[in-house]
Design a protein that fits this description.
frizzled binding, three-stranded mixed sheet, single chain, alpha/beta, 33% helix
């Protein structure tokens, strides 16, 4: 069911993502409510119990690492919202939806934990390569089985991404506060954190630079580089779609698929123990904000299509008018002049819950 309601808006930017710092945060560091202030994170880290409080040690000895952790969390939240933009729950930061989701053990919880662990490993590793951290630098080549070929055309060198350092700091900071109990939720959280980190570590790629006279490539120097974070997010999204529902094994230390016909999960699989709640309508207990007002695709029958995203309630069609730069011209040497053009587009938004 589609209801046509034509209205006009002047919008400078339709797809600008804003992550306000007062509602985002390191839930695994400071709990609820979410908070992304490094000083507050470190103050609260002192309250964590246990002599092996790596989080507090990092705050005390390596405060610059905490800054990278915060950057990694922000990067992860943006990627989470991008990957889930067409889904019933879209990794929203509105209200307390995110906190409620993280207190559960659903596929959405698994994805949020994994992508954050991945984001922290990524930004810490990147900071090493850029020289922003004194305690780390480029990765030392450990490749012994692959050296220069028989003709000596390439060898390991350059500035490789130090994924081992980023992996370690992500693990220390994210896993340290999780009590080493054998309950299913703890085991699942630790597994999904690790799956996120391995999405970076296991998919490093080789990059090379040519050397030689007159542009020839008589020798290549090669190093290992991380995948882009978009690539890591896409891999985790594939795992989210195929996430495995598990239960605890008799030994209290293993996780086994609830469905006996499903093969045991790998290190890269995302795990959960509770089915996703109904995100079609608002529910403060589960963190669902409903899908009223969400943009949908009226021609798609899949995820993001109005039939699925609007949960059968129908949608309203709106005409949107906004300004864009157009007919841009480059003037030597350093100036680009553009005209301001008006563009009209039709968008669809899901109806509310009372019907029209």
């Amino acid at each position: 069911m589609m209801v046509h309601n034509s209205s006009s808006f002047v919008v400078g930017l339709l797809f600008f993502l804003i992550l306000p710092t007062n509602i985002i945060g390191l839930w695994w560091a400071v709990g609820s409510p979410l908070n992304l202030d490094p000083n507050s994170i470190c103050r609260r880290s002192r309250k964590l119990r246990g002599s092996g409080n790596k989080q507090h040690d990092i705050c005390r000895r390596e405060p610059e690492i905490v800054d990278e952790v915060v950057k990694g969390t922000r990067l992860a939240m943006k990627e989470c919202q991008y990957q889930l933009r067409y889904h019933l729950w879209n990794c929203t930061m509105l209200g307390n939806s995110f906190v409620k989701i993280l207190k559960q053990d659903t596929p959405e919880t698994a994805f949020a934990n994994a992508i954050t662990a991945s984001g922290v490993a990524f930004t810490v590793t990147q900071a090493c390569s850029l020289g922003d951290l004194l305690q780390c630098g480029c990765a030392e080549s450990t490749k012994t089985s692959e050296g220069p070929g028989p003709d000596g055309t390439w060898e390991w060198g350059g500035c490789g991404d130090n994924i081992e350092f980023g992996y370690t700091k992500s693990k220390e900071f994210m896993d340290t506060q999780i009590r080493r109990r054998s309950d299913v939720k703890t085991l699942i959280t630790l597994h999904n954190n690790e799956a996120g980190r391995l999405t970076i570590k296991r998919f490093m790629r080789r990059e090379c630079k040519c050397h030689g006279l007159s542009g020839s490539c008589t020798l290549e120097t090669c190093w290992e580089k991380m995948p882009s974070f978009r690539e890591a997010g896409t891999r985790l999204m594939d795992r989210y779609k195929g996430s495995v529902k598990v239960t605890g094994g008799n030994d209290g230390e293993t996780l086994i698929p609830e469905d006996s016909t499903v093969k045991p999960p790998t290190e890269l699989d995302l795990l959960y123990s509770v089915d996703s709640p109904d995100f079609c309508e608002p529910n403060p207990k589960t963190g669902s904000l409903g899908t009223e007002g969400r943009r949908c695709n009226s021609t798609s029958m899949g995820v993001g299509g109005c039939d699925i995203l609007c949960c059968g309630r129908g949608y309203v069609e709106e005409t949107v008018i906004y300004q864009v730069n157009c007919r841009c011209r480059f003037h030597w040497c350093c100036e680009v002049n553009c005209d301001n053009c008006t563009v009209q587009a039709t968008i669809n938004r899901c109806n509310g819950y009372g019907g029209l």
